[in-house]
Amino acid sequence: MKKILTLTLIFGLLLSGSMLTAQKMVQIKGSDTLVNLVQVLAEEFMAKNPRSPIAVLGGGSGTGIAGLINGTCDIANHSRPMKEKEKQQCKEKRIDYRTFIIAIDGLSVIVNKSNSINDMSMDKIGAIYRGEITNWKEVGGNDMPISLYGRQSNSGTYVFFQDQILGKQDYSADMKRMNGNAQIVEGIIQDRAGIGYVGVGYVVDSRTKKPRNDLKILNVAKNANSKAYSPLNRAAVDSGDYPIARPLFQTSAGKPNGVVAEFLNFIFSAEGQKIVKAEGFFPIGKGIIDANMNKMK
Amino acid sequence: MKKKRFSNLKERAIKVFFFTNSVFATLALVGIFFLLLFTAIPAFKEINMGEFFTSTRWNPTSPVKEGYGILSMVVSTFMVTIGALVIAIPIGIGVAAYLSDVAHWRVREIVKPIVEILAGIPSVVIGFLGIVLFGPIIAKIFGTSNGLNAVNGSLLLAIMALPTIISISEDSLNAVPKTYSEASLGLGANRWQTLIRVKLPASLSGIIAAVMLGMGRAIGETMTVMMVTGNAPAFPKGFLSSIRTMTATIAIELGEVPYYTTHYYALFAVGFVLFIITFFVNMISDVILHKYQEREQ
User: Fold this and answer.
1) Residue A41 shares a structural domain with residue A160
2) Hey, of A65, A79, A162, A174, which one would you mutate to test binding to chain B, going by the most B CBs within 10 A of its CB?
3) Which chain A residues are closer than 8 Å to B252 by Cβ?
4) CB-closest option in A85, A170, A174 to B242
């Protein structure tokens, strides 16, 4: 009897102990495009604030926002704006969510290194992904069937690309639905007929901080008559000449306070934005930082 | 007297204990059946039953028109399964025949446990092999630009079904009474003829059961297939096209689907169909296995 009592006590203590740490641990979940960047930001932040643990998980923008609504994370990473339906669900659950822009992404269209094509217009890319153009020779390349790589429907990049490039039409049913940015990059490196889209952070080598040389990043033009720009061109991304640049978001469940607020402030700081740049994404300007600061209040 | 009553009680308690266990196992099966059934039924409030079974278009998140047809994924599932069996049956029976009739007993004692360990390799590891090893080889052999297709899935599923097929086939070959082969050899048949014309037919029901069990494993396998088949939801054009099976569809979409929506219910309906298929495969193998055990007695 005594033994059971002791066991229960120990078990209870363990349980409450783990619950306490679970409460202190800040949970961040969502976008696969953002997961590496936020992971690095969290590591740097934790190096300075060792008593503020942060856990960063991927899963896709849709998964992150669903987690925010269901109360399983404190911050959702997402690479597309929240949908009206999701905002409504937040309101129903009385979540006073705050959305911040933490970085800018030049969404990159990539092909195999051996591909002869360098530039492409948005409508051509759209036609390829809708399945209307199925052979590289139709866009001036070699005669081989195009092999499409994209993301799964829980991905923010999937939704953003569908809205902006496909004109809210269906993806070709032949598109391979890959699990994340890294898998698309791996696929394109091996597939001579492949085309894929990933966040600009994934076409930059994480060690050398230079563009990867085992794949080709296409220059993208707004339409057939305009000039094509590279997503690595900072000025073109800022000015909007690169047509598929997009903001990357973090949304907090409620007004940020404690570790969440400290972490967000760290991201908006010069030091945080330096990490954003080092990871291949583009830092946010002063206007966005000011807007973020206002939302913190 | 007192002691006897106590042992009676003990006996009864043990009986009740084992009875409860078997009830739990049965209840779990019945419970899963009804859970799937009742969660699947609401799907048909909005989905036409005919469309569900005959349409090839599955696109629940389409911005244009939602599609809930499972034909493509059912065909895909059977394609990889049959592909796997075509590879695994000859190899499996060959290895089983070798182990039971040709191999030295020392070789058998070493090889059989190794084959059985093969069954314990996590599916994600096998999937990884498919991506880095088999994918590029398949692409090279068939001249396709990538190896993310049904052939790759079949090959990996064959590897996963092999231990079951080899182990049970070998058991049933060993269970053929010695008198059969002795009589055959005595009538002047050589060992090859004895194996092919006497032992194999005599153990056929066991071998068929082994194949069916291997098939059950292949149909329900998720991770491996999801990693190497590319997950394109189009109707398969052949073994070299990228496909998406029923299990992969559920695994990919269930994580982010909003609860209690048509999409959510439809995924359970897919699960229900899958349950029925595997249930029948397992039931048939069970019936065959029973028949064979009865004859042995």
Assistant:
1) no
2) A174
3) 152-154, 177
4) A174
Do residues A65 and A76 make contact, with C-beta atoms less than 8 angstroms apart? yes
A177 vs B232: CB contact, 8 Å cut-off?
A: yes
Fold classified for B50-296:
MetI-like fold (1.10.3720)
Whole-angstrom distance, CA of residue B157 vs CA of residue A188: 25
Segment holding A78, helix H or strand E = strand A75-78
Say yes or no: A114 and A212 in one domain: yes
pLDDT in tens, chain A (297 residues): 455 545 554 555 444 444 444 446 899 999 999 999 999 999 999 999 988 899 999 988 988 998 898 888 999 999 999 999 889 989 998 999 999 999 999 999 999 999 999 999 999 999 999 999 999 999 999 999 999 999 998 899 999 999 999 999 999 999 999 988 999 999 999 999 999 999 999 998 878 878 899 999 999 999 888 899 999 988 998 888 999 999 999 999 999 988 999 999 999 999 999 999 999 899 998 899 999 999 988
Residue whose tokens read 């739990």: B24
Q: Are A173 and B235 in contact (CB < 8 Å)?
A: yes
Amino acid at A147: S
Question: Using CB atoms, which residue from B59, B145, B235 is nearest to A147?
Answer: B145
Backbone torsions φ then ψ of B28, nearest 5 degrees: -60, -45
By residue range, what is the domain housing residue A254? Answer: 2-104+248-296
Asked whether the ipTM of the predicted complex exceeds the cut of 0.90, the reply is no
Burial class (CB in 10 A: 0-12, 13-18, 19+), A245: buried
> b/e per residue, A88-103, with b = 16+ CB within 10 A?
ebbeeeebebbbbbbb
